[in-house]
Automatic annotation (TrEMBL):
Species annotation: Leptonychotes weddellii (Weddell seal)
Gene for this chain: LOC102731095
Pfam families with a match to the protein in the record: C1_1, CNH, PH_MRCK
Domain Phorbol-ester/DAG-type: 28-78
Cofactor(s) the protein requires to work: Mg(2+)
SUPFAM superfamilies named among the record's database cross-references: Cysteine-rich domain, PH domain-like, Tricorn protease domain 2
UniProt-recorded name of the protein: Serine/threonine-protein kinase MRCK beta-like
Length: 628
């Protein structure tokens, strides 16, 4: 018979009595989502809790606050032990996460250094330099809306001291306390922007410069580079008079864009410098194209009607065909799409809550009404997602069936208690993205949140905006948010804030954000070339000091944008007088083939005949000006 295994003598376990005598039993945090009114650091990772509202968790008992993503890994004991509560500022060099430095500085007033300086709160955090305006007066608490964000991972980012010649309007005693940060602005033509920062004293300036330079060096060493999604390029010459009045735009093909103005609709052939006046529409607010059906859909006029314009008009063809949809009076938004269940192109026109659905056709009258749908609220955004129409309205999104063969599905489930805050306050709908993971990203004016197909929250973490959005565009992979200081791009899958473009006062002219208007002096037409989708427009070389003018041709609707002949002759005379400019008149080789190396004594018989080139082809136009 097998013997039972003999157990070792039992040793009494330590009792919990000594712990009980040491003090009260530790408690867990009483966390709740909180909206902070000023920039607040996460008590766990030290990074800023960026956002306009609901930035993170805060314990109702102690002062511990953290990101939603940091909650599980943060110390769970309340209150936090003293040795854990006082974490020094620092950056995780492998991921670039954390706050490196913060303090009060001064930046030039919007009108420039000559008008003086204004106070700001600056934070170097998560590979970025954040600036927050401080209100005038004694208050030292900035708001949560960032006035400027610069990315240290930007290839053009640099920091340096300044000379007196760099800041001619600054006080002489301030110059040793001023440094300059520079970041990229445009990809083509290459442009950068600079920001001057005034510190309290020279020692403080050295700290800021040293920390920014040191952090930039660490980022380069660890290859924490900026992920470029959009490459901003100037789409056309800013001296074109039409640009300052542009309200909307769309890319027709690789060489043409159509722009809607206060007065008229025009096509710009960017590679040929030809301008075509398509039609005399008033106030063209939105342009959507149906290239397969050769129809352009316009939202225009004093009464916001939808008009259908034949594609042939883009070529300058005289056409009296203008199809106006009378029932669309007061329309605030249009969209075109090809649904999964149909090969036809659909047009959707939103008039307050009513969505009118049409099938676009190639022949007159270019449309056939299919259905009318009533949305749960006034439509603020809409787009087709697979075979459904997704509409956004205050505090909600829904999936509707354009052909009336299905039930509406709300993407904000009223039975989810974590989403009840949406019904307590009105949040404007910006856009929605359908992810491959059976999720939807719903972007509102104050945050973005993720839900499943039943409208229940799928992620606790929300997408936070660093500044108040003024517009938004989206693709299947990224959301692009426009604010007063520029453009921020977010990866919809990872929720990572991947790019910042510092183009102040830029607004999208197209629903996809491909074409934009930069409200500077002079206004510029900006094309966002996608690193992922490829090039949609062949951007020409542009020149800031162009002497081009819109000149009429024999056609009433066709113009050329070029330097007048008298001006060209004057420029050539100036070039001939100046040896440096004269060298620019020599063109590069054309139709050149290397046949053999010719040394001393070699005869002319080995040269090959090359086809003649017309004199026009050999003439090099004036600097940056295209020949028409």
């Amino acid at each position: 018979m097998a013997r039972a295994t003999q157990r070792p003598p039992t040793v009494p376990l330590p009792t919990t009595q000594p712990l009980a005598l040491a003090g009260p039993k530790p408690k867990a945090h009483q966390f709740s989502i909180k909206s902070f009114s000023s920039p607040t650091q996460c008590s766990h990772c030290t990074s800023l809790m960026v956002g306009l509202i609901r930035q993170g968790y805060a314990c109702e008992v102690c002062s511990f606050a953290c990101h939603v993503s940091c909650k599980e890994s943060a110390p769970q004991v309340c209150p936090i032990p003293p040795e854990q509560s006082k974490r020094p500022l620092g950056v995780d060099v492998q991921r670039g996460i954390g706050t490196a430095y913060k303090g009060y500085v001064k930046v030039p007033k919007p009108t420039g250094v000559k008008k003086g300086w204004q106070r700001a709160y600056a934070v170097v955090c998560d590979c970025k330099l954040f600036l927050y305006d401080l209100p005038e007066g004694k208050s030292t608490q900035p708001g949560v809306v960032a006035s400027q964000v610069l990315d240290l991972r930007d290839e053009e980012f640099s920091v340096s001291s300044v000379l007196a010649s760099d800041v001619i309007h600054a006080s002489r005693r301030d110059i040793p306390c001023i440094f300059r940060v520079t970041a990229s602005l445009l990809g083509t033509p290459s442009k950068t922007s600079s920001l001057l920062i005034l510190t309290e004293n020279e020692n403080e300036k050295r700290k800021w410069v040293g920390i920014l330079e040191g952090l930039q060096s660490i980022l380069h060493k660890n290859r924490l580079r900026n992920q470029v999604v959009h490459v901003p390029q100037e789409a056309y010459d800013s001296t074109l008079p039409l640009i300052k009045a542009v309200l909307s735009a769309a890319v027709v093909d690789g060489d043409r864009i159509v722009v809607g103005l206060e007065e008229g609709l025009y096509v710009i052939e960017v590679t040929r410098d030809v301008i075509v006046r398509v039609a005399d529409y008033k106030k063209v607010y939105q342009i959507e194209l149906a290239p397969k059906d050769k129809v352009a859909v316009l939202l225009c006029g004093r009464n916001h009607h939808v008009h259908l314009c034949p594609w042939s008009a883009f070529d300058g063809a005289e056409s009296n065909v203008d199809i106006k949809l009378p029932e669309t009076k007061g329309c605030q938004l249009i969209a075109t799409a090809t649904l999964n269940k149909s090969s036809s192109t659909f047009l959707f026109a939103a008039v307050k809550r009513l969505v009118l659905c049409y099938e676009v056709q190639r022949t007159r009258p270019f449309h056939r009404k299919v259905n009318e749908i009533v949305a749960p609220g006034t439509v603020q955004w809409m787009a087709a997602l697979k075979d459904k129409l997704c509409v956004g309205y205050p505090s909600g999104f829904s999936l509707l069936s354009p052909q009336g063969d299905g039930q509406a599905l709300t993407l904000v489930n009223p039975n989810d208690p974590s989403l009840t805050f949406l019904s307590q306050q009105s949040f404007d709908a910006l856009c929605a993205v359908e992810l491959k993971s059976e999720e939807y990203l719903l972007c509102f004016s104050h945050m973005g949140l993720y839900v499943d197909p039943q409208g229940r929250r799928s992620r606790m973490q929300e997408l936070m905006w660093p500044a108040a959005p003024v517009a938004c565009s989206c693709s299947p992979s990224h959301v692009t948010v426009y604010s007063e200081y520029g453009v921020d791009v977010f990866d919809v899958r990872t929720m990572e804030w991947v790019q910042t473009i510092g183009l102040r006062r830029i607004r999208p002219l197209s629903s996809d954000g491909t074409l934009n208007l930069l409200n500077c002096e002079p206004p510029r037409l900006i094309y966002f070339r996608s690193k992922f989708a490829g090039t949609a427009l062949n951007v020409p070389d542009t020149c800031d000091n162009s002497k081009k003018q819109m000149l009429r041709t024999r056609s009433k609707r066709r113009f050329v944008f070029k330097v007048p002949e008298e001006e060209r002759l004057q420029q050539r005379r100036e070039m001939l007088r100046d040896p440096e400019l004269r060298s620019k008149m020599i063109s590069n080789p054309t139709n050149f083939n290397h046949v053999a190396h010719m040394g001393p004594g070699d005869g002319m018989q080995v040269l090959m005949d090359l086809p003649l080139v017309s004199s026009r082809g050999r003439d090099l136009p004036a600097c940056g000006f295209a020949t028409v």
